[in-house]
Amino acid sequence: MTPVELKALVRTVPDFPKPGILFRDITTLIGHGTGFAATIEHLAARASAAGAEAIAGMEARGFIFGAAAAAHLGIGFIPVRKPGKLPVPSLAIDYALEYGTDTLEVDPGAVGAGQNVVIIDDLIATGGTALAAAQLLRTAGAKVSHAVFVIDLPDLGGADRLRAAELEVEALMDFPGH
Asked: At what angle do helices 33-49 and 61-73 cross, to 10 degrees?
């Protein structure tokens, strides 16, 4: 399936999580076996072209797409976790949200020194989470130069924010608005 065909599998839910927001729901995409498989093939091809030696994905939906793409390529997956989920000493980074802050953590033993890690996630909006993940992985010793997403919301500027942080950004599809 082409990215255009895959885009048709993404459900738009109006007024979620608040009025005026058009939520792009990937549940319908991952529930479509052929569409999900094609999405993973597209993501894996882009990660492979970027020289991925491992894939990193952010909790939670980045786990779905990132782990599947890593398995497709036969390479490792690095989970970038929410706080308190790792049973070993971890590296952490705080980052800004629209209303407050959040934290991401990674097991530094999961990252090889100089390892080429490609970030995969379901959606890029403002870019805060992906930027924090890239910084965290770089602190752990990874080379992070590419991020690949299923969906880009370009009006929110996240991809441009990542490019300013020396990351190449690709997305299978984009949607206007918030």
From this structure: 70
Whether this model's pTM surpasses 0.85: yes
79: confidence class by pLDDT, cuts 50, 70, 90: very high
Determine the Cα–Cα distance for residues 144 and 52; give it in Å rounded to an integer.
Answer: 9
At 12 the pLDDT is 96
Q: What is the pLDDT of residue 35?
A: 98
Residues 6+ apart with CB under 8 A from 45: none
Q: CA–CA separation, 130 vs 138, rounded Å? A: 12
**Can you tell me which residue has the tokens 């497709």?**
72
Element (H, E) at 119: strand 116-124
**Domains in the chain, please, with CATH?**
3-174 (3.40.50.2020)
Q: Which residues contact 69 (CB under 8 A, 6 or more apart)?
A: 40, 43, 44, 47, 55, 120
Active-site residue set: 61, 98
